[in-house]
Every structure is written in C-alpha cells, then in structure tokens.
Amino acid sequence: MQPIEGATAKLLINGKVIPITNCYPIKELAGKVSFETSFQLEEVRFYIVRKNRPVKAVTLEGGSSLETFDLSKWAEGTAEAGDRIAMQIMGGNQEASASLNLCDK
What we know:
The protein is mostly beta strands. About 10% of the residues lie in helices and about 45% in strands. The chain is built from two helices and eight strands. The strands form two sheets. It has a five-stranded mixed sheet with strand order 3-8-7-5-6. Strands 2-1-4 form a three-stranded antiparallel sheet, with no helix packed on it.
C-alpha cells in the first residue's frame, strides 16, 4: 500500500484530539479511541516501540473493534516511559502514521 500525499488522521480519546507533539503517561490515554481521517478508515495498527524495536502490536479493523479498544489497557504492563506508541492508519489506498511518546509526568 502506497501512502497518498495529503492523507491525514487525528487521534482522539473520548472525543478529545490528542496532540502527538506531547508526551503522555499511559494512564492519560485511557478511554474510547477514534480517529478523524481524510479517508475511509479500514484498519489501524498500534505498536509499542522500545529503542526502535516493536515489543507489542495489534491490528484492528475500523468500526466496532476500534470503538471498544482502550489504548492504555492494551499497553498496560508492557509500555514504559521512553517508549513510543506508533500508529498506522489505513483505508483504501491511503495511509497515515504517527507516534506518541510515553513519559512518567
């Protein structure tokens, strides 16, 4: 799948946009995950990345499986401060990606 220039996606938790420029303790990422995208969402992949290596991954279809997904519960017990949560958001022939830095705060 080749990314299409201009494809965008925003991460929302409990309806609130989460800026990817900040770092977050994992507890702040609790709640209902959703995305605002410039394309029809079909699949989302989440990865916990530590020192450039994925240590945990999950793939979710858009819709009901994403609506019941709690990012903090999924990452709990694996994610540590200094890790990143990488996201790959796909639909049709479009794709967007981003990552969130985790910290203690």
